[in-house]
Amino acid sequence: MAKPSDEQQRALAGLLGLGNHSTRKSHYPELAARLDELETERNRYKWLFENAVQGIFQASLLEGMRAANPALARMLGYQNPQEVLFSLTDLAGTLFVGGAQELESIGEILQRERSLLGYETQLRRKDGSVLDVLMNLLLKPDQEGLVEGFVADITERKLAQQRLQQLNDELEQRVTARTNELLDAAEALRDARDAAEAANRSKDKYLAAASHDLLQPLNAARLLISTLRERKLPDVEQVLVERTHQALEGAEDLLTDLLDISRLDQAAVKPDIALYRLDELFAPLVSEFQSVAAAAGLNLRVHMGDYALHTDLRLMTRILRNFLSNACRYTDEGCILLGARRRGDALRIEVWDTGRGIPAARLDSIFLEFNQLDVGRAADRKGVGLGLAIVERIAKILDYRIQVHSLPGRGSMFSIEVPISHEIPLPISQVAPQPSTGNPLPGRRLLVLDNEVSILESMSALLGQWGCEVVTATDEATALVALQGQAPEVILADYHLDHGVVGCEVVRHLREHFSQAIPAVIITADRTDQCRRSLQRLDAPLLNKPVKPGKLRAVLTQLLA
After folding, report:
1. Distances (CA, A) of 38 to 6, 14, 34, 268
2. 3-state SS, residue 3
3. pLDDT digit string (tens) for 297-313?
């Protein structure tokens, strides 16, 4: 640093009040050292100003740029910092893309706030291109309108932001496109589901219509075969009749189970919960299966107490009928037990057998459709394997618990738990039948009402073989003519007659005509809830087609006993 001149020393001495020679002599080394420090500081700031990475400038709000560092010049595309010392007019017209309006706004903010930090704007470079920058501006308090500014090039950051925004837009477009694809796929799935549901509904309607048409001739054939089975025939003919009976029974089971599975899968079955005595549930089952068990060389035993249940009688009968049917089917010798025992607020109804049993590994699969045990050969197949699948679906509808216990070679136990009632209705007149001491059917006058002539002929042959006097008719008018003013003891009526007439109406009209509560049995292939409700109002038992002769005989015996 150069030594201060005499004139500078005198001026400084006068400023500090050091006028005489002795004073100057004593304070000169201290002043010289202070001046050296100031010069060193000035050179350091000058070096930082010229070598800073960011652009730095000093400007006047009234005149324009006063100083700029090389970094700002390079940033704007100029070689020399002097080239960027724009006047106020050039700042507005050349440098700031926002023009005079932007400069005016910046000046107002600085006058009010004294600083403007993090201000993003655009500057025009020498070649006309636009540069994105971030500015920090400070208004110096001791000098009117003097602004010091720091400028950072944020072009790369802006490009990165634009690229990120572009990526976000592309991602949103892909998400939108994918969402539209998924919506289209979901719509296609809904259309496919609707088509499948429509197909299922059509299938159910077809099955309901076709089943009636199929079950009518099957019912007639079943009755005729049953008539032949009860006759004494030569051994060869007897074998043929028995084989025909088995074939018809298999076809009947298949049709019935397919109909039930279809209705259960479509939630077409609604439970009708009411209060029933246990013997009211057991009586028809015992009547039906006593002859079945006896024919198989088995002993059917019943154990029940004085209980009442809250249940759907029809659905519970279907479950227990399947349990008993399987027990008879898979038991070669021994006995079958139908019993009930109380378990808290539920009654557990159990069916025990001494049959083949089920391996533990197969217990989970026995409720699957078309699943049967020990059917390696076609000749060993009995039924179609839908019985327990139907049981499981009905149990889910009723919310009942099913349990299975089995030991291979020892037998099995199937049980279902039903809500018990503390209120017990009065005993029914029809109790579980005991071994009969006589046959009440011979000589009894029965009216058979059906619109199918083949069924009338088959039913007439079977009932006539049982010793009954049979009167047949296709409608109410022909029935009145055939009866010749004498009321029948029992009416066996088809539910669906010609011209939309139902058998229930004819039964009511005949009761009114003869002024008697004539016992009636409705025989139908219709398994709808509407049909069942009609029968409840009529107070008549229901037999589904094809009619099982053993069950028909048991119902007639109970009605005529």
Report:
1. 19, 20, 6, 102
2. coil
3. 999 999 888 888 888 88
